[in-house]
Amino acid sequence: MTGVTWVRRHSDAAWSPCHLWQCWYWLPSTALVEPILELFQVACSSLEALAVLLEPPSLGSQPFGQRLEHALATWIEVLFAPGYQLAAFLVQPFWRALGTLLVARAVARLALFPFSEVQHYMPEHFDETSEWVVGQLLASANLRFGSRLARWMDFLMFHGDSHQIEHHLWPAMSFVRYSQAAEVVRRTCAEAGLPYHEVSYWEGYRKIWQQVREHSEPVPTGIDSRPPSRDRPAGERKRRRPEETSSSDEDC
Predict the structure, then answer these.
(1) Which of 111, 134, 174, 217 is 20 to 30 A away from residue 96, measured at CA?
(2) What is the b/e burial string over 176-202, where b = at least 16 CB atoms within 10 angstroms of the residue's CB?
């Protein structure tokens, strides 16, 4: 892997001349090229699990039982996971099974793009001096659905993936509690004057398109446009060094 992605959507990603054209190819790349690359990576992982299993025992190496357990877990996931479905290749012609798998992954990518992408990146709302909780509120957003059917589909099929704010605030919380937590967080934000971002499904696509367009050009030399990290612990802020404070006081 070269470390360069086909679609550059964030300033901390490496730039390549191909990104000048990403506004034209980002949807085909997202729907077809990236799923194919993922399948190649899964195939490499499966072969690597077999290779590790065949290695001779040596000092410091994992016991054979652990290697076998890891290999079996990898192969079972590849065989039966909905994203790979290797079992379908055993009962169908190869090209039919491959075509079905690629079409399914492409449709899933296009349908779930706002779910999996846009609510994780809201760089226009970053604030370098924010507390940790406020930083999560600034950098996250929930998808807003207009119908009860869409909300139930999100709950049953995607396990409440639209509630990214609550997921970032409480990573260990069960998804069945997200809707209750959302009411508490929304009410608290309204009382404290804190932001609570919600975007519609198509607004999520619009934000992704803006990111693709804005980051197609290279960053000028000497300019660091990377957004500050939102994982900064609570209470950590940029402060002046003691020598800077003393020198400024002397100037006064």
Answers:
(1) 111
(2) eebeebbeebeeebeeeeeebbebebe
Judge contact between 11 and 121, C-beta under 8 A.
no
Q: What's the length of the chain? A: 252
Tokens describing residue 153: 């589909």
Q: For the segment 121-140, what is each residue's pLDDT rounded down to a tens digit?
A: 566 666 666 688 888 888 88
Confidence (pTM): 0.64
Q: What is the pLDDT of residue 197?
A: 87
Predicted local confidence at residue 2, as pLDDT: 62
Indicate left, alpha or beta for 85 from its phi (over 0: left) and psi (-120 to 50: alpha): left
The whole-angstrom separation of Cα 148 and Cα 209 is 27
Task: Say if residues 44 and 249 touch (Cβ distance below 8 Å).
Answer: no
Percent with pLDDT over 70 in the chain: 80
Residue 170 region by backbone torsions, left for phi larger than 0, else alpha for psi between -120 and 50, else beta: beta
Rounded distance between C-alpha atoms, residue 173 and residue 163, angstroms: 11
Q: How many CA atoms lie within 13 A of 247 on its CB side?
A: 5
8 A C-beta contact, residue 86 and residue 78: yes
**pLDDT, mean of residues 3-23:** 85
Query: Is 8 in a helix, a strand, or coil?
Result: coil
| Domain regions of the chain by residue span | 17-111, 118-218
Answer yes or no: is pLDDT of 43 > 50. Answer: yes
